[in-house]
Automatic annotation (TrEMBL):
Organism encoding this protein: Malus domestica (Apple)
Annotated localization: Secreted
Keyword vocabulary terms for this entry: Glycoprotein, Hydrolase, Iron, Membrane, Metal-binding, Secreted, Signal, Transmembrane, Transmembrane helix, Zinc
SUPFAM superfamilies: Metallo-dependent phosphatases (SSF56300), Purple acid phosphatase, N-terminal domain (SSF49363)
Major location category of this protein: secreted
Keyword Metal-binding: yes
Family affiliation: Belongs to the metallophosphoesterase superfamily. Purple acid phosphatase family.
Name of this protein: Purple acid phosphatase
Lineage start: Eukaryota, Viridiplantae, Streptophyta, Embryophyta, Tracheophyta
TM region positions: 12-29
Record domain Purple acid phosphatase C-terminal: where: 481-528
């Protein structure tokens, strides 16, 4: 059946849609893809295939893809990340070797320059920028545990860039000389309602297993312009400091005096990912596996040190939350493992950031954080309820369109929902914690007999200081219960498989979401839907303010 996106929309939206077709926007004409306008959908669960579970085995230390292949202070683990807008990016890399053991001596960050030479031509470069460098330590004040100090981490911000333009670059220290090979990246399209990245890859809970390599290979074949990593990066905290690992840390190492990590796994991950993220920008938000507690109660040292974040550019004072534009999309990265209360700094920043969004320039508003609010799996069920209760109303009032989360190692797509009720103006929640990590897949649902968690077991000590907020439902089919006895109405589709997603925003109101499973061929689709905004029907706080001002 041929499909026109204008065939099933309200009259006002149909006019907009027809205009978009006339001016040359791409629209599929093959088999009809469902849209959120067809919803809410009847809940669907794809039965779990036990043959897919297998063993989630980490890449070993001697795998050639994770070994150090540079000499001296030559750059490695090179990556690109975005600044707040199209005209600026960050280039990051590491020089020098990490140390791990009892007697470590941190490198001097000032001993090597942080320089990027770049331009629109492959050679010679026409511009040069300098940045800053640092090292971080992971220290354990317990006998027998090994300490770690990183190589020198460099971050350089390039500014004054043109939109949708390929730039070539080398990074390193030209005075040694120790410069990288020539790499390239493409800037984001100009910020505006008619320009969007073609494909945005979304993935969570990656780790560094053979499943991970399948995910990244599949993702790379889709030629993304941007990668969103929704927390839980390396799973270095599934290891002791001597390199002994386990699928379940607490099960295997119950007597550890502190939750240890094996920090070289971060270096392995950076080396493996370089071929992708040295040319495709990656934007990361923290997950629980990045906490990595150490001496003096320090946490998140690796996460906050290794990645560059547009925090300052977006008015944030933290690496845990920030925002950026990618064409006509405004992304908000929200921290679940820092204070999210209404009286906290993050909430006040979020209020200001949302108030500053001009939906006539960036029509799409997308939020991400690690633990999902609307997951129906037994694992982590309603774990982030305190966060939801603090922030959901604010995000809803500003008309957030899509929310991406991870944490649960499976895939799930919601119907449009607000406060557990079907709502045509609520966001679509997408859980993509199925990147392939060592902890394996989530396969049981809270609505299955015997799998509804005891309420007091659901709080996470790192989320809202472990406060208990998830009470029994007070209305609807699950009134008086902690779990539904069937797949909840707000859950549209769920499946336990490893994979990744691709978001393709077509214009101001239509976006195509596609989820791919690792076990399928590159062109086979696991789940697909058009997410359609209805600004004429769902007036956000911003739109109402603008409308009143016009009157």
């Amino acid at each position: 059946m041929a499909f026109s996106p204008c065939s099933s929309v309200p009259a006002v939206a149909a006019i907009t849609c027809l205009i978009a077709v006339v001016v040359g926007c791409y629209w599929p004409v093959e088999a009809r893809i469902p849209t959120t306008l067809d919803g809410p959908f009847q809940p669907l669960t794809v039965p779990f295939d036990p043959s897919l579970r297998g063993n989630a085995v980490d890449l070993p230390d001697d795998d050639h893809r994770v070994r150090r292949r540079v000499k001296g202070f030559e750059p490695e683990q090179i990556s690109v990340s975005l600044s707040a807008d199209y005209d600026s990016v960050w280039i990051s890399w590491i020089t020098g070797e990490y140390q791990i053991g009892d007697n470590i001596m941190p490198l001097d960050p000032k001993s090597v320059q942080s320089v990027v030479q770049y331009g629109k031509l492959g050679y010679p470069p026409t511009n040069e920028a300098s940045g800053y460098s640092l090292v971080y330590n992971q220290l354990y004040p317990f006998e027998g545990l090994q300490n770690y100090t990183s190589g020198i981490i460099h971050h350089v911000r390039l500014t004054g860039l043109k939109p949708n333009t390929v730039y070539f670059y080398q990074c390193g220290d030209p005075s040694i000389p120790a410069m990288s090979e020539i790499h390239h990246f493409r800037t984001m399209p100009v910020t505006g309602p008619r320009s969007y990245p073609e494909r945005i890859a979304v993935v969570g809970d990656l780790g560094l297993t053979y499943n991970t390599t399948a995910t990244i290979s599949h993702l790379t074949s889709n030629n993304p312009d941007l990668v969103l990593l929704i927390g839980d990066v390396t799973y270095a905290n599934l290891y002791l400091t001597n390199g002994t690992g386990s699928d379940c840390y607490s099960c295997s190492f119950p007597n550890s005096p502190i939750h240890e990590t094996y920090q070289p796994r971060w270096d392995y991950w950076g080396r493996y990912m370089q071929s992708l993220v040295s040319k495709v920008p990656i934007m990361v938000v923290e997950g629980n596996h990045e906490i990595e507690e150490q001496a003096e109660n320090k946490t998140f040292e690796a996460y906050s040190s290794r990645f560059a974040f547009p925090s300052e550019e977006s008015g944030s004072s933290s690496t845990f939350y920030y925002s950026f534009n990618a064409g006509g999309i405004h992304f908000i990265m929200i921290g679940a493992y820092t204070d999210f209360s209404k009286s906290g700094k993050q909430y006040k920043w979020l209020e200001q950031d949302l108030a500053n969004v001009d939906r006539s320039i960036t029509p799409w508003l997308v939020a991400t954080w690690h633990p999902p609010w609307y997951s129906t799996y037994e694992a982590h069920y309603r774990e982030a309820e305190c966060m939801r209760m603090e922030m959901e109303e604010l995000l809803y009032s500003y008309g957030v369109d899509i929310v991406f989360s991870g944490h649960v190692h499976a895939y799930e797509r919601s119907n449009r929902v607000y406060d557990y009720n079907l709502d045509p103006c609520g966001p679509v929640y997408l859980t993509v914690g199925d990147g392939g990590n060592r902890e394996k897949m989530a396969v049981h649902h809270a609505d299955e007999p015997g799998h509804c968690p005891e309420p007091l077991t659901t709080p996470d000590e790192h989320l809202g200081a472990g406060a208990f907020c998830a009470m029994n439902f007070t209305s609807g089919p699950a009134a008086g219960k902690f779990c539904w006895d069937r797949q909840p109405d707000y859950s549209a589709f769920r499946e336990s498989s490893f994979g990744h997603g691709i978001l393709e925003v077509k214009n101001e109101t239509w976006a195509l979401w596609t989820w791919y499973r690792n076990q399928d061929s590159d062109d086979k689709i696991g789940d697909q839907i058009y997410i359609v905004r209805q600004p004429d029907k769902c007036r956000s706080r911003y739109m109402l303010t603008s409308w009143i001002a016009e009157l």
